Amino acid sequence: MRFSSLLELGKLCEDESMSIGQLMITEQARESEQSSEAVFEQMAGYYGVMKEAVQKGLMDKPNSRSGLTGGDAGRVKAYADHKVPSLGIVAARALSYALAVSEVNASMGRIIATPTAGSCGIIPGVFVSMQERFGWEDELLVHGLFAAGAIGYVIANNSFISGAEGGCQAEVGSAIGMAAGALTEMRGGTPEQAIHAVGLALKNCLGLICDPVAGLVEIPCIVRNGFGAVTALAAADMALAGVTSVIPSDEVIGVMLEVGSNMPERHRETAKGGLAQTPTGRKIMKELDRKGPST
Asked: Which stretches make up the Serine dehydratase-like alpha subunit domain (predicted)?
């Protein structure tokens, strides 16, 4: 890639009069030695899987192999459709869609890791709910995925996207930043505004630990995906309104690296600390150990 930072990414977009998504398509085609049409078609396939996962999670209401989670996406969707959600109907649907995809993941269904399986619900939750709201064609959403990919590329190469390395800030936080930046662009924001959205989103996630109960990507991972989708919407709206990240987004990514590097091991996906080691968390682990492997 011709960029290694968000600053360089924004400068390239400005110099070549391209959106982040357009630039990333060009870069990916060059890197893979394929046509732009071929890489676009591949990404379109990924978006199709995301939409399928949303529908599967809502319609089938899958339970996880452990039996610990399942059905919450449907509960939130029903509440949003029949009550008056505090978030408003659109944000509540984004929340429910993110939960749906995460529940499909926990039930061993097919998802797209964005950027990881543990954070797989955030981008689909944001994208599918916004597509429904604004009536967007799939083509725009696929461009949005390329924008998200460019942002994720910078984060991955300058910090972490793995909870085992940097805590949940690296998984859910990165996904929120990717979704926020991409949504800003899809709604007509400039590359500069999209990059500010990334910084605004990541600042709100710094220090978030990875503490999966019983070592499973379920509790609290699934609900964090739901909250993450809502945070991405908020960050995009701030950026579109003209709010800027006073600390440049690249520097925020650097802080995520610093914080993650200094995070205790017990708070980095080991299930040795945090919620995993509460009395209830330990009880759940003992019960699952007693039952043995799921079939």
From this structure: 16-276
Q: Is the pLDDT of residue 292 over 80?
A: no
The CATH number for 33's domain is: 1.10.4100
Please report where in the chains the tokens 């996904």 appear, as a residue: 175
The predicted pLDDT at position 293 comes to 64
User: Is residue 295 included in any domain, yes or no?
Assistant: no
Q: According to the 3-state scheme, what is the secondary structure of the chain?
A: CCCCCHHHHHHHHHHHCCCHHHHHHHHHHHHHCCCHHHHHHHHHHHHHHHHHHHHHHHHCCCECCCCCCECHHHHHHHHHHHCCCCCCHHHHHHHHHHHHHHHHHHCCCCCCCCCCHHHCCHHHHHHHHHHHHHCCCHHHHHHHHHHHHHHHHHHHHHCCCCHHHHCHHHHHHHHHHHHHHHHHHHCCCCHHHHHHHHHHHHHCCCCCCECCHHHCCCCCHHHHHHHHHHHHHHHHHHHHHCCCCCCCHHHHHHHHHHHHHHCCHHHECCCCCHHHHCHHHHHHHHHHHHHCCCC
pLDDT at residue 80 in the model:
96
294 falls within a domain: no
The verdict on residue 243 lying in a domain is: yes
Residue 26 has pLDDT above 90, yes or no: yes
User: How many domains does the chain contain in total?
Assistant: 1
Residues 163-168 have a mean pLDDT of: 97
Inter-residue contact 151 to 6 (CB < 8 Å): yes
Whole-model pTM: value is 0.97
Provide the pLDDT confidence category of residue 125 given band limits of 50, 70 and 90. Answer: very high
Residue 61 falls within a domain, yes or no? yes
For the chain, the first-to-last Cα distance in angstroms comes to 43
Residue 280: pLDDT above 90? yes
Closest to 220 in 3D by CA, of 257, 271, 266: 271
